[in-house]
């Protein structure tokens, strides 16, 4: 335990967990196993706050017990500011983007676009209409790589809402494929010598940047009215934003957050359902079939998905519980963080990194029975309704008061995609029986990625 003194603790005075390999050990562990490595480190100490050291940086790890204290300091830390730290290397940011990210809090912009009920309803309707049309146009039978097919469909549906119907994810196959490549590998751009160690990701990033700029010029009138333009901080900080390359870099970062997250999680959900006992899949399909078409007849009505489809929603929360990892946050300025069991606070400086591991509470065996198993039944009460109290314990789309404003929109898109696919198609494996999906190795921020894909036959019911 930390000793009690009146003065504040410095970062160097926190307990520090050493790695088995000096200097590089923690970095290698994070690169290989991400959330699982963080869990291993957490179990090695009883401290609520401790540090690990990677080359050139000390990271503070916060135990889930610190959530309540950290939630009182939402304004003191920021996720966007992490981009200012890694943006040059990973996303090719210039000085304008780094300055804008460091000085502008993007959360009000995001809350305005995604948090207002009328905006959420409009965005959900636009994405659902695209999905309805795509599913209706699908052939009676088709062979597809399931993850690839679902990812592209979900990305395109989300882009139609956020970027408008004229968007490169829907209209440019080469662009869509490059975006998938980048979404799977952009963390590799943080490696030394990325032109050698991350060639694929670097080529995809540069290609996407060029195409985004050209596509914007061709469809300017529609693009400047889009939600994506409204949340782009360069559009708010630079009067000459259109000729600023950083505008398109920020746009690409927004796409990775808004499009890749619900798309990957939707794929995880369907893969888990296909590998689960048949009884669970049949229940979810029956629920999906109970959802009506909207009054306009052009989309699926998911407004009552929580009451009509409790098993589908329970499976979504179980997917979040299993596959959300951790969220790094950067101190916006110097401040003092109170410590549990001590009358001393931790003195943090601007730029210090705090890692909030969602996986630690989501996989805590003291809180969850059989925490590694995919068991949606844990979220369904004996009366058949959702156990909302247990659902609220899942740490997803942010922790410690820092919740993603787009989480409801992401949920709506994922529900429309998964329900639409399961009610429309019978999914038959073509290469091997469906088994529990595995996690790709690597450093995953926010959520884990799948290790493989499966070839399936889609047959309309």
UniProtKB/TrEMBL annotation:
Q: Which UniProt keywords apply?
A: Heme, Iron, Metal-binding
Note whether Iron occurs among the keywords: yes
SUPFAM superfamilies, alphabetized? Cytochrome P450 (SSF48264)
Query: Where do the annotations place heme binding?
Result: 404
UniProt-listed InterPro entries: CYP450_monoxygenase_sec-met, Cyt_P450, Cyt_P450_E_grp-IV, Cyt_P450_sf
The cofactor named in the record is:
heme
Q: Which domain of life is it from?
A: Eukaryota
Write out the GO MF terms: heme binding; iron ion binding; monooxygenase activity; oxidoreductase activity, acting on paired donors, with incorporation or reduction of molecular oxygen
Family statement: Belongs to the cytochrome P450 family.
Protein's name in the database = Cytochrome P450
> What taxonomic lineage is listed for the species of origin?
Eukaryota, Fungi, Dikarya, Basidiomycota, Agaricomycotina
